[in-house]
């Protein structure tokens, strides 16, 4: 019995015509296999200058990841969620947007923000635990690196929708992990984006894990790209380690959004090569063989091989990319080794436009404690000097 027959025979009111699907779901369905460019005939059509730019950015990005991880071991960085192995997604996301567009990264997407032009040290301020976001989001149009999962997605939709209402030509690209697609915010963001036809692109980096939870325990969906279909959003599946493919798919999605075509959900299939962060031990929940298999699908090696085979990259280019990466890493080390100047009172800055009574009270309490500590230091210092003068002792 169809719904119509059912309603005709029953005393229930006939639903309005809008119950019918308004969109043919077929074109929304993602391809069965992730889209690839490198090693396929599509590589012949790719712009060699773009591919070389992506290659240099990948080499730089990998070095950024290894350097930031080293800084956690040296106690210079509290935590670093590395994107090693995911650089193709990071770099493509960082470079595909126009200057007027907005990027909404998660905590793992520092590299995307840096690829978009953000200062590498400022990008790490939050992860060093020094200050709030660490950078002015308006400078490069990069929203704060979001630690609460998926909360950046409704923000991206709101910004994109507001921009369109104002007549501004702005696209928002929002990044989220596979685990983040189980969050309510993910679903709310997709629904609003679709209903409003907001100029937004969702990039899901499916890196196989949400900390220790593998994808198979996270979802029973055919793919994460399929999750768009229920909202009327087309899903695209792409090889997340193929920088040329990720850039192509994101570029198409950005163009579509810009021309009023609405949102796209892109799932990039990739792999988290390192532990979740430096605070995690991935050997407790996954096999070394799996990691080795993915090492054979390394985003830098894939692009380097394709470019070399096409005669578009030589030893000198590779050496230049590596040299630039070492230079960046040396600069990052030097600057991260400087002692940061912080004011504990900044804890209360930029939380609310107008401070709540509780926050005012807490700020006053902290101010009093800091003043008292300063006073103790000062009197201790004076007593120490007086003692030294009296006894002639020097406690160095
Ligand atoms: C709302 C919320 N719930 C839980 C957490 C704790 N948490 C931090 S990272 C993480 C896993 C996220 O996995 P995924 O979305 O796949 O991103 P990935 O770390 O793999 O990039 C969880 C559960 C959080 N940060 N925010
Ligand atoms: Mg993940």
Automatic annotation (TrEMBL):
Residue ranges constituting the Dehydrogenase E1 component domain according to the UniProt record: 60-327
SUPFAM superfamilies: Thiamin diphosphate-binding fold (THDP-binding)
GO biological process: branched-chain amino acid catabolic process
Domain of life: Bacteria
Keyword Oxidoreductase: yes
Cofactor(s), by name: thiamine diphosphate
Basic and acidic residues bias spans: 361-381
Keywords recorded for this protein, A-Z: Oxidoreductase, Pyruvate, Thiamine pyrophosphate
Protein name from the UniProt record: Pyruvate dehydrogenase (Acetyl-transferring) E1 component subunit alpha
Organism, scientific name: Streptomyces xinghaiensis
């Amino acid at each position: 019995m169809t719904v119509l027959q059912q309603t005709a025979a029953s005393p229930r009111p006939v639903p309005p015509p809008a119950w019918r699907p308004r969109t043919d779901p077929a074109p929304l369905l993602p391809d069965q296999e992730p889209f690839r460019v490198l090693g396929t005939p599509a590589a012949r059509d790719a712009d060699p200058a773009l591919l070389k730019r992506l290659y240099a950015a990948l080499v730089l990005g990998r070095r950024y990841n290894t350097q930031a991880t080293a800084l956690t071991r040296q106690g210079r960085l509290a935590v670093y969620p590395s994107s090693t192995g995911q650089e193709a997604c990071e770099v493509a996301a960082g470079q595909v947007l126009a200057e007027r567009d907005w990027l909404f990264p998660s905590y793992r997407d520092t590299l995307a923000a840096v690829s978009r032009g953000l200062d590498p040290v400022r990008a790490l301020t939050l992860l060093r635990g020094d200050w709030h976001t660490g950078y002015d989001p308006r400078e490069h149009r990069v929203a704060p690196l979001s630690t609460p999962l998926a909360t950046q997605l409704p923000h991206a939709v709101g910004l994109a929708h507001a921009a369109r209402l104002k007549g501004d030509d702005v696209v928002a690209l929002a990044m989220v992990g596979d685990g983040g697609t189980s969050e309510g915010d993910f679903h709310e963001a997709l629904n609003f984006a679709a209903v409003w036809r907001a100029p937004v692109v969702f990039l899901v980096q499916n890196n196989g894990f949400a900390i220790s939870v593998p994808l198979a325990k996270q979802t029973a969906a055919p793919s994460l790209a399929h999750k768009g279909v229920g909202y009327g959003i087309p899903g695209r599946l792409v090889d997340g380690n193929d920088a040329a493919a990720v850039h192509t798919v994101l570029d198409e999605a950005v163009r579509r959004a810009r021309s009023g075509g609405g949102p796209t959900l892109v799932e990039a299939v990739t792999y988290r090569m390192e532990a979740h962060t430096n605070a995690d031990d991935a050997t407790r929940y996954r096999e070394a063989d799996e990691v080795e298999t993915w090492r054979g699908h390394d985003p830098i090696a894939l692009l380097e091989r394709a470019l070399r085979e096409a005669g578009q990259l030589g030893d000198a280019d590779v050496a230049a990319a590596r040299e630039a990466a070492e230079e960046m890493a040396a600069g990052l080390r030097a600057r991260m080794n400087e002692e940061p100047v912080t004011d504990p009172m900044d804890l209360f800055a930029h939380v609310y436009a107008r401070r709540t009574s509780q926050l005012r009270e807490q700020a006053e309490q902290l101010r009093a404690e800091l003043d008292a500590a300063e006073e103790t230091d000062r009197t201790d210092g004076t007593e120490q000097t007086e003692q030294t003068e009296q006894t002639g002792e020097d406690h160095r």
